């Protein structure tokens, strides 16, 4: 009859002999789960209204330099705010701010 303690140590020795293989499989599985989770998250975000705002932000932040008009090394940006839910006209502009960015100093 095989004693349980002896049998456990035999399994432990076999497992520890392949520890690098087990670590590689665990790492590969973890990376696969993370990548599939991110892909699933991106596909969910694409189907929500949030994707529109992300596209607008991307177009604003990563616009090519030749598409931005500047005067005297300054770029003026008009920032508009909406009334939002609970107002009589939620899609109308209720706030206007002007930001002027000086390219040399960054401010």
Describe the structure.
The longest helix has 28 residues. By secondary structure, this protein is α+β, with helices and mostly antiparallel strands. It has three helices and two strands, in the order αααββ. The protein has two domains: 62 residues; 43 residues, no CATH class. The termini are far apart. It is 50% helix and 18% strand. The protein is elongated and about 85 Å long. Strands 1-2 form a two-stranded antiparallel sheet.
Query: Quick one: how many beta strands?
Result: 2
Estimate percent helicity: 40-55%
Q: Strands of the largest sheet, in order across it?
A: 1-2
CA-based gyration radius: 29 Å
Number of helices: 3
Q: Which segments are poorly predicted (pLDDT under 50) over 5 or more consecutive residues?
A: none
Average predicted local confidence, pLDDT: 82
Helix-strand string? HHHEE
Q: Tell me the β content.
A: 15-25%
What is the terminal-to-terminal distance? Answer: 81 Å
Indicate the topology:
Elements: H1 4-17, H2 19-46, H3 50-61, E1 74-82, E2 93-102
Antiparallel strand pairs: 1-2
